[in-house]
Specification:
The protein is α/β, with parallel strands linked by helices and 587 residues long. It contains 24 helices and 22 strands. It has four domains: 126 residues, CBS-domain (Roll), CATH 3.10.580.10; 91 residues, PAS domain (Beta-Lactamase, 2-Layer Sandwich), CATH 3.30.450.20; 174 residues, Rossmann fold, CATH 3.40.50.300; 141 residues, Helicase, Ruva Protein, domain 3 (Orthogonal Bundle). It is elongated, with a radius of gyration of 48 Å. The termini are far apart. Keywords: ATP-binding, CBS domain, Coiled coil, Nucleotide-binding, Transcription, Transcription regulation.
Length: 587
């Protein structure tokens, strides 16, 4: 079958360009001397036009010479053969077949009637044998580069081939095993069973030595109905098995970690962690707790910075839904990307799309909660698509053809008046009623000023812990300023202000000069504009003292010694004031 490799070559590829040309008028003596001097045993005769007229070998000449006179005769009188020639572009296999058909060992190669080379039988054989060597070397390299180990045995069980892969797997060198019977090394080898049964055996799990694992297959090789060999492929799965065990261990750890993280999140985002003791915030927490247990859509209203996302997360944690909490800010997404962000897209859906596609936020929130913050900023065209998703409980990716079932609880939030937007036609009425099954309106910070000291204590503590700072004391005048400030940015503004106060505190005390300029300026303006509501001095003193004591006690987390220090009064005076004003909740 290797001779078929000659199909790949032309005569020009295999011909020998080393040749001797003599005119037909030359004699035998000249021919013999020329062949000896060039170390060649054939010579080509040409006429005056250099056309080939004969091919003579040294053996041919010796047969023709019987006397001294024959040595001097022109060679043209000694030859009578018809010359068969070929061209450079002819297929090498055609040249071989031509030589076999005419029983000749040499074939001149011509170009434009002139000889340019010669093909000898040895040239063909050398090319075939070199190809066999190349193929054998290539086969060895291929087998050695395979991840699987390969073993080939003859019908008697003698090892003919033992690849590097199987050498490594079984720790037996090629030099040791090739040429010997496989049974000497592996008495229970799968290949031996295949030799006996003449049937293939596939995918058998095997541990050749402790800590090593393999999957083995063996098949018999038949030619003309006769089994001439058997081959086994042994795939080393040691790394895969060990990795699988490691992954299983890692999964157990991950499950444990996920459980712990979930506990942390539940604590961090639970209603228990919502800051505030005011009646109005307690009422809102109670409302949210009730709706959390249902799957109804919730719309949370309120000014920016009032904690709408905190409530949304708490509702999700209390709901017990298994899926994740996925938040998306509708005001932060470019209109052109809204649909792909919300619903995802398939591979190649548009220019710039990821090859593997992308899962949308709605799909990610499956079995969980989708929080649509700033829902009033959602484009009208997306409102229609979102309504359809909520009604049909299915999502279709951009560029996709198959709808995906979803189970999503929607919590929305906005600082806008959606009812006004509905009347103006900038928000869909049907989507508004779909989202507004339960409405929770969060109060601004100025409506719950009694919670400011609690926020102060929490935010100061958190900021100092994050930045490895000592917790500073706060001057009573500063506390009074903060209590009277209207906080248009609500809790978010308060938190940023507290960071400012801690950073610019002096000698670990937050003083009046630590306050941001905008708050100080607002205080000055308020003092100028303020008109006394009552001229009853005793009543004003009473109200001021009660308000200050409550704020200081909340700030100190009911620690009377600390509260007295904040107000710069003796602790005994604080006890007296608490009893005098009937503030029993602080006693």
């Amino acid at each position: 079958m290797f001779l078929h490799q000659l199909d790949q070559y032309t005569v020009g590829d295999i011909m020998d360009r080393r040749l001797i040309k003599l005119r037909e008028e030359a004699n035998s003596r000249e021919a013999i001397n020329t062949m000896i001097s060039h170390n060649l045993d054939d010579i080509i005769l040409t006429d005056e036009t250099e056309k080939v007229v004969a091919v003579l070998t040294f053996k041919d000449l010796m047969k023709q010479i019987r006397s001294e006179e024959d040595l001097t005769k022109p060679l043209k009188y000694l030859v009578s053969q018809n010359v068969i020639v070929s061209t450079e572009k002819a297929q090498a296999i055609e040249a071989r077949n031509l030589m076999r058909k005419n029983h000749i060992g040499r074939l001149p190669v011509i170009r434009e009637e002139k000889v340019v080379g010669i093909v000898r039988v040895n040239d063909i054989l050398n090319k075939v044998y070199s190809k066999i060597d190349e193929m054998h070397a290539a086969l060895e390299k291929i087998l050695d580069s395979l991840y699987e180990g390969v073993c080939v045995v003859n019908p008697e069980g003698t090892v003919l081939l033992w690849s590097k892969g199987i050498e490594k797997l079984y720790e037996v060198n090629q030099e040791e095993i090739v040429g010997r019977n496989l049974e000497e090394f592996f008495p229970t080898a799968l290949l031996l069973k295949t030799l006996n049964s003449k049937q293939p055996i596939r995918n058998v799990y095997h541990s050749p030595r402790p800590g090593s694992y393999a999957i083995i297959s063996s098949i018999p090789i038949f030619i003309g109905g006769e089994m001439i060999a058997a081959v086994s492929t042994d795939r080393d799965i040691t790394e895969t098995t060990n990795l699988s065990e490691e992954l299983e261990t890692a999964k157990e750890k991950l499950d444990l970690l996920e459980t712990e993280v979930k506990k942390i999140n539940e604590e961090q985002y639970s209603f228990h962690n919502v800051i505030g003791k005011s009646d109005i915030i307690k009422e809102k927490i109670l409302e949210a707790r009730k709706v959390a247990l249902a799957n109804s859509s919730v719309l949370i209203g309120g000014e920016s910075g009032t904690g709408k996302e905190v409530f949304a997360r708490a509702i999700h944690q209390a709901s017990g839904r298994k899926g994740p909490f996925v938040a998306i800010n509708c005001s932060a997404i470019p209109e052109s990307l809204f649909e792909s962000e919300m619903f995802g897209y398939e591979s190649g859906a548009f220019t710039g799309a990821l090859n593997k596609g992308k899962t949308g936020k709605v799909e990610l929130a499956n079995q969980g909660t989708l929080f649509l913050d700033e829902i009033g900023d959602m484009p009208l065209y997306m409102q229609a698509k979102m309504l359809r998703v909520l009604q049909e409980r299915q999502v279709l990716r951009v560029g996709g053809e198959k709808s995906i079932d979803i189970d999503v609880r929607v919590v929305s939030a906005t600082h806008r008046n959606l009812e006004t937007m509905v009347m103006k036609g900038t928000f869909r009425e049907d989507l508004y009623y779909r989202l507004n099954v339960v409405y929770i309106d969060l109060p601004s910070l100025k409506e719950r000023k009694e919670d400011i000291p609690i926020f102060l204590r929490r935010f100061i503590s958190e900021f100092c812990e994050e930045n490895n700072l000592r917790i500073p004391e706060i001057d009573a005048e500063v506390l009074q300023v903060l209590m009277n400030y209207p906080w248009p940015g609500n809790i978010r503004e308060l938190k940023n202000t507290i960071e400012h106060l801690v950073i610019f505190s002096k000698d670990n005390v937050i003083q009046k000069n630590s306050l941001p300029e905008r708050i100080l300026e607002k205080k000055i303006i308020d003092e100028k504009q303020q008109q006394p509501i009552s001229f009853d001095l005793q009543e004003n003193i009473r109200n001021t003292e009660i308000s200050t004591i409550k704020s200081a006690m909340d700030m100190a987390d009911n620690n009377k010694a600390k509260a007295a220090k904040i107000m710069n009064i003796p602790r005994s005076t604080l006890y007296y004031k608490l009893k005098y004003y009937g503030l029993k909740e602080y006693l």
